[in-house]
Specification:
The chain is globular. The protein folds into 3 domains: about 140 residues, Rossmann fold; about 140 residues, Aminopeptidase, CATH 3.40.630; about 80 residues, no CATH class. It starts with a strand and ends in an 18-residue tail after the last strand. The relative contact order is 0.08. By secondary structure, it is α/β, with parallel strands linked by helices. The strands form 4 sheets. Strands 6-7-8-9-10-12-11 form a 7-stranded mixed beta sheet, with helices on both faces. It has a 5-stranded parallel beta sheet with strand order 3-2-1-4-5, with helices on both faces. The chain contains 11 helices and 18 strands.
Length: about 400
């Protein structure tokens, strides 16, 4: 769809976030990325005298070259072709003209939230670009950071911090109905060093951290689940250290997670939370997700329910359930529920039922090889007997009795 993408950059939080989105889009469409920094002539034009103008212009050029060099390095490291442009004009005009010169078919730019008074007095570069551009403009919104929190992708060296946050958060949130031993067992299995390395290197996993003063204080973990009915982004976990709650960190993580999932062209976003955890349910509702259904799960051999919240209305209102019939080698008809899945190493597993009403569970369907010859191993994990696809321990089902 896109072959040439233009990303304006100035080293700000908004442009840095836009660059990350631009890189993701360029990877998806095998596109070339063009970076532009506009030396704003309105700024140095206000200075009197040729010497003063030249001094200010050179300073702005230095800033621009540094911003372009930093951004270009990031794009190159991602394996994407990149070209840089330093222009002298007004920002919105420089962006529009550069897009035309390079034949861009998409502009990706950041826009930091400003007050109404600011926009009224000075206007907005992004608003002008959207109004004047002849090609699509993808805006990446970044709000003002009043708490010193930054959001970044997790790396393998974050495993200790992730285990610490998960343990503190879950003990705070779930201790009323889950034993500490069960929580510890779950965290060790989900976020052991090797497991965590596998998670952060998985292209279908979105793992973000919230950082304050170089310390991780929260994280979100989401997965892309591809089904014949479309792509779903599942938010499995969103944890904030109890000492840092009520500061908007959870909302910031959720908004950044949703933005990245939307960049992957998901058809819906689902948030999963235990029904017994009232605060978690309220959090999703307050952030605009709609309750869809409850699912039975097992934790340590005990039955619980997990609620599903979505940005798409429940079945019966705007869409039909994602159910498809499947005929086994023995001629038996099963019904695959694409809305009930578990993450697999080579592809997701989908729940299989004997009736369209999803009343009786048959087992699991392996999307990697198209087989229902799926069983549980001795650790209680789903495994396909045909292709060896194995369930990744990412949620409560990994804490069944051993």
């Amino acid at each position: 769809m896109y072959s040439t993408i233009l990303v304006p950059t100035d080293g700000s939080a908004g442009s840095n976030e836009a660059l990350r989105h631009g890189v993701d889009i360029a990877k998806k469409y095998d596109a070339t990325l063009h970076l532009v920094y506009v030396v704003d002539e309105d700024i140095y034009g206000h200075y009197g005298g040729i010497d003063a103008i030249e001094h200010v212009m050179e300073a702005l050029e230095d800033v621009g070259e540094e911003a372009l060099q930093t951004a270009s390095k990031l794009v190159t490291e991602a394996g994407i072709p990149v070209e840089v442009h330093l222009e002298h004009t007004t920002p919105h005009r420089g962006i529009i003209e550069t897009a035309s010169q390079v034949g861009a078919d998409l502009i990706v730019m950041g826009t930091e939230q400003r007050s109404k008074e600011y926009r009224h007095l000075l206007g907005s570069v992004s608003e002008r670009v959207v109004r004047l551009s002849s090609v699509p403009v993808h805006l990446v919104k970044v709000g003002p950071d009043k708490s010193g929190i930054s959001i970044r992708e997790a790396t393998a060296v974050d495993d200790d911090a992730i285990r610490r946050i998960a343990r503190r958060s879950m003990n705070q949130s779930y201790s009323s109905f889950l034993a500490e031993t069960e929580i510890d067992k779950a965290i060790d299995r989900w976020y052991g060093t090797e497991t965590f390395e596998d998670l952060v290197s998985d292209p279908n996993t979105i793992f973000l951290t919230a950082v304050k003063n170089e310390t991780i204080v929260g994280f979100s973990q989401s997965h892309l689940v591809d089904t014949p009915a479309g792509m779903t982004g599942e938010i499995h976990w969103l944890h904030v250290d109890p000492d840092h709650r009520e500061n908007g960190i959870g909302t910031s993580l959720l908004n950044n997670t949703r933005a990245i999932l939307e960049d992957h062209d998901v058809d819906r976003i689902n948030g999963l939370v235990l029904s017994d955890y009232e605060a978690g349910n309220v959090f999703y509702e307050e952030n605009g997700l709609i309750y869809v259904e409850s699912r039975p799960i097992e934790i340590g051999g005990e039955p619980f329910e997990e609620n599903v919240y979505s940005d798409v209305s429940p079945a019966g209102e705007d869409r039909e359930p994602q159910i498809e019939s499947y005929t086994t080698a023995d001629g038996e008809t099963l019904y695959l529920n694409y809305e009930e899945s578990e993450i697999g190493r080579d592809g997701p597993f989908f729940a299989a039922y004997t009736t369209r009403e999803l009343g009786d569970r048959y087992g699991w369907f392996c999307s990697n090889c198209g087989s229902v010859d799926v069983a549980m191993d001795t650790m209680g994990r789903i495994v396909c007997n045909q292709c060896g696809n194995r369930h990744k321990a990412t949620r409560w089902d990994a804490v069944v009795t051993e």
